[in-house]
Task: structure prediction
Amino acid sequence: MQGKRRFERWYMKYMVKSPVLFCVYLGVFFGVFLIASSVVTLEERQTYEAKINGEEIEIVCGEALELFDNRVYFYEDRNREVFSFAVKEAAYSDGVMRILLCGGQKEVSGTITVEIVSGEHTLFQRIFGKAGAA
Amino acid sequence: MKETGNRLNYWSAIGFLKRYMRGYRKHFMMFYAGWLADSLLAVLLPVLFGIMIDEAVYYRNLHSFGAVALVFLLCILFSGGLYFLLYAQHGYLMNMFVFSIRRDVFHHLQKCEAGYMANASTGEILVLLQDYPVQCMHFIVRNMIHLYNNVLMAILYGAYLCAVDWHIGLTALLSAFFSVLINMKCRKKIGSLGQEEREAYGSYAGWMYEVITALRDIRMLRGEGKIERTFEKKQKELFRIGAAAGISSLTAQNMIALSNLVIRLVIYGLAAYMAACGKMTLGTLTVIFSFYTKLSDKIAYISQNFLDAQGRVSYIQRIHDFLRAPTEPERTERLEIREGSISFSGVSFGYESGEPLLHRITLTIPAGKHMALVGKSGCGKTTLARLLVGFYRPQEGMIAIDGQRLDACALDSVREEIGYVQQDVLVFDGSIRQNLLMGNRHAAEEQLIRAYEEAGLAPFIESLPEGLDTIIGSKGMGLSGGQKQRLAIARIYLKNPKILIFDEATSALDNETENAIHQAWRKVLTGKTALVIAHRQSSVMLCDRCIILENGQVAETGIPARMAVESERFRTLFAMK
Amino acid sequence: MGKRMRYRYRVLCGLCPYARGVKRYWVILFLFSAVTTGLNFATPRIYRTFIEHVILQADFGMFKTVVFGYLAVYFADAAAGHIKALAKYALVNGTTYRIRQKILRNFWEMRFSDYEKVSVGDLKMRIDEDTVQAAAFADSQTIELLMQYAAGVVSIWMLFRIHIGLALFSMLAIPFTFWLGSLISRCEKKITNERREIAQRTSSWLHAFVQGWSEVRALNLAKHEERRYYRFLHADMRCNAKWINYWTARVLIIPKLKDEFFMQFGLYFIGGLLILSGSLHIGDLLVFAMYYALLSDAVQTVSAADADLQSGMPYTDRLLESLAGWAPEEAYDKTSGQVQEQPDGKKAAGQKREQVCGKKVGQVPDTSNTIVLKKVTFRYPDVENALFRNLDLTIEKGERVAVTGKSGSGKTTLLKLITGMLEPTSGSVSFSGIDLRHIDRTFMYERIGYIMQENILFHTTIRENLLFGKEDASEEELLQACRKACIDAFITGLPDGFDTVIGEKGIKLSGGQRQRIVLARMFLQDNDVFIFDEATSALDQYSENIVQDAIRSIPGDKTVIVAAHRASSLKLCDRVIEVG
Result:
């Protein structure tokens, strides 16, 4: 019984009456969240219309595109299937970007949408900068 | 309860409550900060979620998926712990905040004008003390803090939706507009039904308390049937109003749900169109749907909140008005009685505005004399006593004790110096000893014994196995009318004031006991001034002088022995042949 | 769980008889609840169609079907909901009314000596707050519960149909939170009990305090009473502080744990992994989440119903007790301040009553109206000495008897014994040859009119108060009675006359005025035995004489018993009994 009363008093004093624990808790969380969301990096992707022919993708664009990860995604209908392939080589000339894929690909041909990994950004940037989009 | 001038609205209610919040500012801030953090998290989580889905479903990035999932987990765990801290604060605030309001109300109750207390209904006062302060706390938590957080969240959701696609954002805002409109339309009807419900319940509860207190009497009057019929009527009324309020509320909810549904379908359509054009991912879609649902929930909550706020403001209004009700005047001068002479000069008083009960009463009770006050029942004898103790203030004229004006003296000092034995004796729940000590908290044991001996309670107390420690009152032994009167007299003896007022103090006693009390009076009252209101000749004959009140004025004064022979009025009053 | 089901069954049996005539509403409620529960399962299907066809396959044509589906479900649900609400009100109101009526009637059945012992706050709680529990049994504890069980089973089946592994994982959450919830609610129950006790004691004390305000002020007890109030409040606050932790855990943290941790994170995490591995489709996952939401709602509702049952047990027990007829003496344990738990409340209280009352006689055929006390001994329970020992007393019809004695010597007690308000410790009291224990009180009070020292006037008009004496009294009769009681001049002098409201919201009457109205009421009753217990103590001599004339004018064949000690009162009577 005595122990219970003491616990009650301790509880009241530290948990309820003093703002220290509360502020520390909030502070710790915000700190950890900021650190975590700055450490976690996600891909940043740019979307382009392109044509695919076998292993070669042709994108019409104004300037050379930088491939960050040597990796591209492409699809006809994003909700059906997204294909992901490594890049063997990429070259730019006369307003056309040509990308050669590693490994054969036979399922898709014609007009597609290509997403090129153009960089990395932190989770923080993704949430607050781009509202969740890539 | 009459309502005084200023009506409170939402903002002035907050102003009123600020006073009580002041002491707990730190805690309220912590409380608000916690809820704010929780609200922000609530907005953040769906976004994280959407990212998780996209990375997993489309791009099959296990690494990204896992990392974001971890952050998500972190947020959830945090908010769990936050709730504990938050509600610890809530509990603390609820207790302390409500306590400080109750304390104020109770304080005010002690100092309230006697006229107000006599007119007020017990039920209303109880509810003012017990329920309404809790409503004040609810007001702050729900109608302030939660409201502000929800508004903030609604804005953030709306902003996100607009950022994704302005069509969707616009539709969402439209829905908000519609539901607020519908709510406002329904508000009046539901509000007035709610008010009706509260009033019906208040009146029913008061009636029920009365019935429960009077169960025995009702049985003896064979009034069970009558009471049951009234009961049926009141219950049916309560039910009718409750059902009407409930159905109204349900209809309103349904209408809002319909408008929400229609808008939701529109948003679905828009989203589907955008997805078909390849402009939207499933993850974003999930977030949109989730945000939209939450937004409409928030809007509904905010509208409901306004309704509730109105109801609560009316409770706060009651407390506010009560705290402004007139109190007994605070004065600083202490009444000091050296000899104990009382004088009434031209005192007029009436309870209601209208016919005054007492007309320009002028009389003097010299120090140390015992004055009997007689007259037909209802002529104002008790009123005179009440004026003397400061329960009421004369509308005209002045009362002075030892030359000190009563209207300049602090009332608690007046009541300290004057002992008043009233007609209805209050027996507190507790032992006889505790009841007696009410007269004088610091009395020694011998004084206690002497007091109850003088009051003629000795044989009774000594016959009890536990003596002075016997429990009396509602949970203990019942006392007869005569025993109660003797208890009241013993209390006053313990108090030992210089002026005493006995109001029908021996009416329920038999001749023998009364004689014993009169003997004691001869001893105890020597040197003290006494005002004895009585219907019995025996009490009157004891006194030095006698005053007959008739039609609110002093009709006759004189020495009792002589009046018994010479005064026609006196002889009629006591039916002497 | 079996224990709870048995408890529910017991309560239902206890409450069922009061649902006479409204049972059909229960059936309607049941049917339409089934409809709304069923409709809940339609929504995920429509949503699945939406995701699969409209979003993922860009089949815009299906959108029309989706819209139609949602609207149809909405209208069906709204209509069913409305009918449910109406049925529920009809059912609950009808049953609650009958229950309250029964409890009120049971109040009439209490023993007279118990009326002094009861706490006003307690009785009010019994007839109001406790009966609210009955409403829960109409709906949430019975129909809702059944529906949710059914919904739960169907959901589980749907979940397994989608993906067995995921379903198994999600099953983990349920028993865990269930168990945690019931553990916490058990602790909550103890505290709820304590809170109710404290609330009741506080409100009784407050009630007495507010009523006795003038004495408190005259004795300058303000500070002392304030300290007492604070002590009550502190006790309540301590209790509250403990309770809120349990409540937070049960109502907020556990659902949060379940919703966000399991349902969102856990489910989507594992679901996501499954999608990545290709064994689950995103559309399935979304629908899975919806069915899981239904399941967890069902579990939540069932768990909440159980928790409510637990925490409502003190109220429900008391309700059953009140319905069976209970006496405060047995139930209230003064030492611990706790209501003793009756193993089977119904039987115990009922039995006790049988013992005391036995067979009751309705009409007393014999009009001899003789009151006979035979070898009556009486002792108050706390007091050592007996007030009366082997008392033999006979009062014949038409006698005028005065009872005198020192105050406190037992005059009122004797009168209470004569009227059956108190029972002799040994010996018997009989009226017209029948032992009082066997006479129905209502008929006794037809014959006997009793004015006590403290009389209650109701907070209604003077006329209403007087009509309690005789319901169909004419104006002339009312006036006549008031004339006898010497109060007619006063009443007719009031602006509203007989329609003046007295009491808390009306005019204040002096002690003497109250007594005279009570006397007038008594004169209206056509009793055979009139008992006056200090009925004229607050009157002046002049008024008393008028009243005594009225008493004298009571017809000779009626018995009059007067307890007083004024010489003038004694003159009325032929016979004097001295007590003490």
Observations:
- DSSP finds three helices and six strands in chain A.
